[in-house]
Write a structure and sequence with these properties.
Elements lengths: L9 H17 L4 E6 L6 H22 L5 H19 L2 H7 L2 H18 L11 E6 L4 E6 L1 H6 L4 H15 L2 H19 L8
Parallel strand pairs: 1-2
Antiparallel strand pairs: 2-3
Length: 199
């Protein structure tokens, strides 16, 4: 399965690829790694915040300068909205304007979409795990198929996500993804060990 590693620098790409190969060699279950630059464009947030901030600033100006006419206020508000819209369109700022909860929902939605597009088990086995990483949000999701989920202790996937996300925030995205990949592999190899090589 395609691992989408072209989004990473060469050094990180090799580390993540090595972790993926280690997992796949250690288990007979399927493991998929999918990474995307971002889970959403979040275009609406730039416009909403530009409108809110321009209205607040125009209102503050009207309080300080009560002699301003409605027409002048409208011009000021429109100019502020256009200027702020352009500023807030810059990706780092736009991403910062998005609430964390909305980012998590976008990542979860994209993960389900990617799972549907890259269906792991197309046969009778349902032991696959997909690790989905959204790089801009520095967040990941794990989707485990029926058998893989049944063999994992309660809270396993949530714990892997929490630990890896903390590592992504504290150290680096690549370090968190390597950690999550190997943790998924440990769970899968315990439940579905690699088949012995045929002589």
């Amino acid at each position: 399965m395609v691992d989408n590693l072209h989004h990473f620098p060469a050094t990180d790409r090799e580390r993540i690829r090595a972790a993926i190969e280690h997992v796949r060699a250690s288990t007979s279950a399927k493991f998929a790694f999918v990474a995307v630059p971002a889970s959403d464009h979040y275009a609406l947030f730039a416009e909403v915040w530009a409108a809110v901030v321009s209205l607040v600033l125009t209102g503050a100006l009207a309080l300080v300068r009560p002699h301003f006419s409605i027409g002048a206020g409208f011009v000021v508000n429109a100019a502020l909205f256009v200027a702020l819209s352009l500023i807030f369109e810059w990706w780092p700022i736009r991403l910062a304007l998005v609430p964390t909860g909305f980012k998590r929902m976008a990542v979860a939605r994209m993960a389900r979409h990617q799972y549907a597009a890259n269906l792991i088990s197309k046969d009778a086995e349902h032991n696959g795990v997909m690790l989905f990483a959204s790089l801009a949000e520095r967040h990941l999701e794990i989707i485990a198929e029926r058998d893989a989920h049944a063999h994992a202790p309660p809270g396993t996937w949530e714990s892997i996500i929490a630990n890896a996300t903390a590592t992504m925030q504290r150290q680096s995205v690549a370090e968190g993804l390597v950690q999550a990949t190997l943790a998924c592999g440990q769970v899968q190899s315990a439940a579905f060990p690699a088949m012995p090589a045929k002589a």
